[in-house]
């Protein structure tokens, strides 16, 4: 199993980034997927999850209305569109595979993880 995130970087407050996660080594559309982040010195924070077909989506309250998760099962790719970025969004963002079709919100329930991509929002 491989999960490879990309799209992170340095952005100013109010800017946007689109993260991608390319998946391989498993049947992508058999599993829900999620984005989890870790800010410096803080615990892992679940950000968003999407079920296997993309028609069930959940967000953490901290990003609701700001981030949009999506997936393209034909391309085995997960996305996270991040708008109106704030300094508190600075973190390493990980994509991860849920243990089943359905969204889970506890980071510890995710099975496979990418290596993460750094997002830094500067003020």
How would you summarize what this structure contains?
The protein has 123 residues and is mainly beta. The protein has strands at 2-6, 9-12, 17-24, 33-38, 44-50, 57-59, 67-72, 77-82, 91-97, 112-113, 117-122.
Major pleated sheet = 7 strands, mixed
Overall shape? globular
Specify the oligomeric state.
single chain
SSE-based structural type:
mainly beta
Indicate the proportion of strand residues: over 45%
Rg from Cα: 13 Å
Number of beta strands: 11
The percentage helix is under 10%
Poorly predicted regions = none
Instruction: Please count the helical segments.
Output: 0
The helix/strand order is EEEEEEEEEEE
Q: Tell me the span between the first and last alpha carbons.
A: 37 Å
Please tell me the overall pLDDT.
97
Summarize the structure in words.
- This protein has 123 residues and is mostly beta strands.
- Helix content is 0%, strand content 49%.
- The protein has strands at residues 2-6, 9-12, 17-24, 33-38, 44-50, 57-59, 67-72, 77-82, 91-97, 112-113, 117-122.
- The strands form two sheets. Strands 2, 4, 5, 6, 9, 10 and 11 form a seven-stranded mixed beta sheet that branches.
- A hairpin with a 5-residue loop joins β4 (33-38) and β5 (44-50).
- It starts with a strand and ends with a strand.
- The mean pLDDT is 97.
């Amino acid at each position: 199993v491989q999960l490879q995130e990309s799209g992170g970087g340095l952005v100013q407050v109010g800017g946007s980034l689109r993260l991608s996660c390319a998946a391989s080594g498993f049947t992508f559309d058999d599993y829900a997927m999620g984005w989890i982040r870790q800010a410096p010195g803080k615990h892992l924070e679940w950000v968003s999850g999407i079920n296997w077909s993309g028609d069930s989506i959940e967000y953490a309250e901290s990003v609701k209305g700001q981030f949009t998760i999506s997936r393209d099962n034909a391309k085995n790719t997960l996305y996270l569109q991040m708008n109106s970025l704030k300094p508190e969004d600075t973190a390493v963002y990980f994509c991860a595979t849920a243990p089943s079709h359905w969204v889970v919100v506890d980071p510890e329930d995710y099975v496979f993880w990418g290596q993460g991509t750094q997002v830094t929002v500067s003020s």
